[in-house]
Specification:
Elements lengths: L12 E9 L17 E2 L4 E4 L2 E2 L17 E5 L3 H7 L16 E3 L12 E4 L2 E8 L4 H6 L5 H8 L4 E7 L1 E3 L4 E6 L7 H8 L8 H6 L8 H11 L1
Parallel strand pairs: 5-6
Antiparallel strand pairs: 1-2, 1-6, 1-11, 3-4, 3-10, 5-9, 7-8, 7-11, 8-9
Length: about 230
């Protein structure tokens, strides 16, 4: 029987639908290279402290690292994007937004900062939401995806790796610990990225209790507090 978690999905066990990895390469029409283009991976993939084996990041100053080792994006959002982007061809398969993990039944409203999930045999922890950048717009031929992600709070989230292991498509993603049930990815993203701090200073102050929040977002909170 599934455990009952405050702000949890209907089930605390989700199926990994697809895994994607990508290599750094020239980003068409841009001066900077990128690894945002991810392709599905067949079979087991090792999950290391800095991410999934075979996956790369181009600009390590803002991408990758222990707190952004793995990017998870909900397939649940794809119908929204197909409507918004006139069924762009990138949306035919998972990985359109540079995500490593694709699932159905789990979104930013149901995932909390600090949640620990058993991913195959690995153990991962939610560290922050994804902060979209210009490369998302560029990938979609200049469409205003970035701004829409912020407005709709549909940006995905990152994991840090607590225990290394392996995972493959079809494996379970199981919630095993939740310490901060009030701090969903959507709520924290709203406060730190989407401007909600302007009307919820008390929430911004209380967010300091969430010690699992990635350091860049913890610093951003202090800047917003002034």
């Amino acid at each position: 029987m599934a455990r009952t978690w405050h702000n949890a999905p209907m089930s605390d066990v989700i199926t990994v639908r697809s895994l994607q990895c990508g290599k750094v390469r020239a980003f068409r029409g841009a001066d900077e290279p990128s690894a945002i283009a991810k392709a599905p991976v067949e079979g087991p993939v090792m999950v290391h402290r800095l991410g999934m084996a075979g996956d790369e990041q181009a600009d390590l100053a803002v991408h990758g690292g222990p707190d952004k080792a793995i990017h998870h994006y909900a397939l649940d959002h794809y119908p929204f994007w197909r409507d918004a982007l006139a069924d762009h061809p990138l949306l035919q398969t998972p990985g359109a937004f540079g995500e490593n993990i694709s699932t159905e039944g789990l979104t930013e409203e149901a995932v909390c900062i600090g949640d620990r999930w058993r991913l195959g045999s690995a153990l991962v922890e939610v560290s922050q939401g994804r902060q979209p950048c210009w490369k998302v717009d560029h990938r979609f031929d200049g469409a205003r995806v970035n701004a829409t992600m912020v407005r709709e709070r549909k940006a995905g989230w990152y994991y840090r790796v607590i225990e290394e292991g392996s995972v493959c498509a079809g494996d379970r993603l199981e919630l095993v610990d939740r310490q901060w049930p009030d701090w969903t990815v959507r709520r924290v993203f709203g406060l730190l990225i989407a401007g909600d701090h302007k009307r919820d200073r008390a929430g911004l102050e209380a967010l300091g209790e969430v010690t699992a929040l990635a350091e860049p977002w913890a610093r951003r909170r202090l800047v917003l507090l002034g």
